[in-house]
Amino acid sequence: MAESAACPAFRLGRPQYEQNTFLGRLRHFIDVIDPSTLFVSEKRLKECIKLLDDYKHGTLPPGVSDLQLWEAQKIKQAIIHPDTGEKIFMPFRMSGYVPFGTPIWLNQSHNACVNYANRNATKPASTSKFLLGYAGAVTSAVSIAVGLNVLIQRANRLSPATRMIVQRFVPFPAVASANICNVGLMRHNELSEGVDVLDDKGNVVGSSKIAARHAIMETAFTRVVLPMPIFVLPPIIMSYFERLRFLQSNRRLLLPIHSAVCLLTFAVSLPVAISLFPQMSQIEVSRLEPEIAMATECKVVTYNKGL
């Protein structure tokens, strides 16, 4: 009984944890961003895919447990894009978001590739559109961040009180605005082409630009929430470390420790941010285009929000 509670019965294509609660989504996305999946070999991936195919076709070998099936599905979902069925390049998987996050110019470039690799890919996008979106995303994101950093540097001309407010609060809107631009430009193709919406049996009902707009808005909101803990927690933690006698006599250790604290905070904030919305989101048909309502009797349809 305890094992059944700890590991629920396997459901192919469905998350192990309930997605209608924040805690369930958080547990699910902790699995999605598990960095150990970055080191899964090609042989192991093929074994997982075969195991899931055997389950689907009713030819599962005896002795395979629900835990093994959940692990196989976790590995497949971390590596294979749900829409294209193709492998996501390792650095651009959500499990690679934290390990491969680097300084601002490269970070925004990496963000752009992560946003594109984890988009809704039910509609093909040309290479030219990708390159255009990539150039626009990185340029606008870095321009916003650099522009607001210049504002911070010029804050010396302001009164002490105003300068303190600017220096403390400008970095967050700089990063948040850059992230919003990055998501919007890397996924602009969805706004023009729409995304597939599915009925309760998983059949494609049609393509909706309204659902695409919701998907991008929800993803952009997660990118606004993502940096919040990074701007709040490290200064609080470092203020404690800096009072330690050992670090006061070894000041050179402060920078690597501060970097480690920021990295750990990023690792914690990522699953929290992307858990705000389920990946497979639902929307009422009445809120979509008239042709969608005419094509199905379902009251609610599902779409891949992307990550």
TrEMBL record:
<comment type="similarity">
    <text>Belongs to the sideroflexin family.</text>
</comment>
<dbReference type="Pfam" id="PF03820">
    <property type="entry name" value="SFXNs"/>
</dbReference>
<keyword id="KW-1133">Transmembrane helix</keyword>
<feature type="transmembrane region" description="Helical">
    <location>
        <begin position="131"/>
        <end position="152"/>
    </location>
</feature>
<dbReference type="GO" id="GO:1990542">
    <property type="term" value="P:mitochondrial transmembrane transport"/>
</dbReference>
<dbReference type="GO" id="GO:0005743">
    <property type="term" value="C:mitochondrial inner membrane"/>
</dbReference>
<keyword id="KW-0812">Transmembrane</keyword>
<feature type="transmembrane region" description="Helical">
    <location>
        <begin position="220"/>
        <end position="241"/>
    </location>
</feature>
<dbReference type="GO" id="GO:0015075">
    <property type="term" value="F:monoatomic ion transmembrane transporter activity"/>
</dbReference>
<dbReference type="GO" id="GO:0006865">
    <property type="term" value="P:amino acid transport"/>
</dbReference>
<keyword id="KW-0813">Transport</keyword>
<dbReference type="GO" id="GO:0015137">
    <property type="term" value="F:citrate transmembrane transporter activity"/>
</dbReference>
<keyword id="KW-0472">Membrane</keyword>
<feature type="transmembrane region" description="Helical">
    <location>
        <begin position="253"/>
        <end position="277"/>
    </location>
</feature>
<keyword id="KW-0029">Amino-acid transport</keyword>
<keyword id="KW-0496">Mitochondrion</keyword>
<protein>
    <submittedName>
        <fullName>Sideroflexin 5b</fullName>
    </submittedName>
</protein>
<dbReference type="InterPro" id="IPR004686">
    <property type="entry name" value="Mtc"/>
</dbReference>
